[in-house]
Specification:
The chain is α/β, with parallel strands linked by helices. Helix content is about 40%, strand content about 15%.
Length: about 280
């Protein structure tokens, strides 16, 4: 499989799932992410018959499907009632994933409110451990994403945005149902940068690399390649040189922007010295 084939598109909420698969097949996109929170794609709107039809459709069209939970749902929630609701939300994704034939589910560590970091991290870890056990039973794979930093004086901050915080979770969870989703543009916002993250994390546990442009040590943006200063060629050379064999996922702009960028990125990789394959 070529590098171009391994670069996917995050559909998000843009299309009903059946239409997303058809769009991907028409555009020779082999990997897509979809969010199941709204409209026709709500996680509770898939009966067994619809799920089976989608699984067969994706297989026939050569499209590998992944699910992406909403980062606004606080995995680090500990309040009564809300805490149980977060469990139900995540279990719904996990239960549906094998029915759809989804190869992964991107999950998050939640967020804190500055004064409750320890309590939130403990609650998030316990929840992720429970969800991994549930995923083991269902045959699903959870990918924990490193999220973006927020301004230093913000009250609310995403967890697992730094190497240290991300490590807190993945060093305590070891399961065939658990791996990592590395958002390279989020690493670009941190002092260590992409190279520092790649040197520090267990790359063999990374199943997906997520991509967008942004500015070094800047703030969260999902820009088109060339609108920021992220060096995609260097990133591909670094990861491929370290043996990464998973898929990449574009997450910015429109579907057409991400599709065009797949080809542009493959060109950047060639310019960085990678062979066409």
């Amino acid at each position: 499989m070529t590098l171009l084939d391994r670069i996917g598109v995050d559909i998000g909420r843009r299309l009903p799932l059946e239409d997303a698969i058809e769009w991907a097949a028409r555009n020779q996109v082999r990997y897509i992410d979809i969010q199941l929170d709204t409209g026709a794609n709500r996680v509770d709107r898939f009966d067994d018959a619809r799920a089976a039809a989608i699984r067969e459709q994706a297989a026939a069209r050569g499209v590998t499907l992944g699910l992406h939970t909403l980062s606004a749902v606080n995995v680090a929630e500990y309040s009564p009632f809300l805490s149980e609701a977060v469990d139900d939300y995540m279990r719904a994704y996990i239960d549906l994933a094998p029915k759809l034939g989804a190869a992964w589910i991107v999950v998050h560590a939640g967020y804190h409110f500055t004064a409750d970091v320890k309590l939130r991290m403990e609650a998030g870890l316990e929840r992720l451990q429970r969800m991994v056990e549930h995923a083991e039973k269902r045959g699903a794979l959870l990918l924990l994403e490193n999220l973006n930093k927020e301004p230093q004086d913000a009250e609310v901050h995403y967890l697992a945005h730094s190497i240290e915080e991300w490590r807190y979770y993945y060093e305590r969870i070891h399961s065939p149902a658990f791996a990592l989703s590395f958002t390279a543009n989020h690493a670009h916002l941190m002092p260590e940068g992409v190279e520092g993250f790649v040197s520090a994390i267990p790359l063999e546990r990374v199943a997906e690399v997520r991509l967008a442009d942004c500015f070094r040590n800047g703030h969260e943006q999902h820009l088109l390649p060339g609108e920021g200063n992220f060096d995609f060629g260097a990133m591909f050379a670094l990861l491929e040189g370290r043996g990464f064999q998973g898929h990449y996922m574009n997450a910015f702009g429109t579907l057409e922007d991400m599709q065009k960028a797949r080809h542009d990125m493959a060109g950047m990789a060639r310019e960085a010295g990678l062979m066409p394959g």
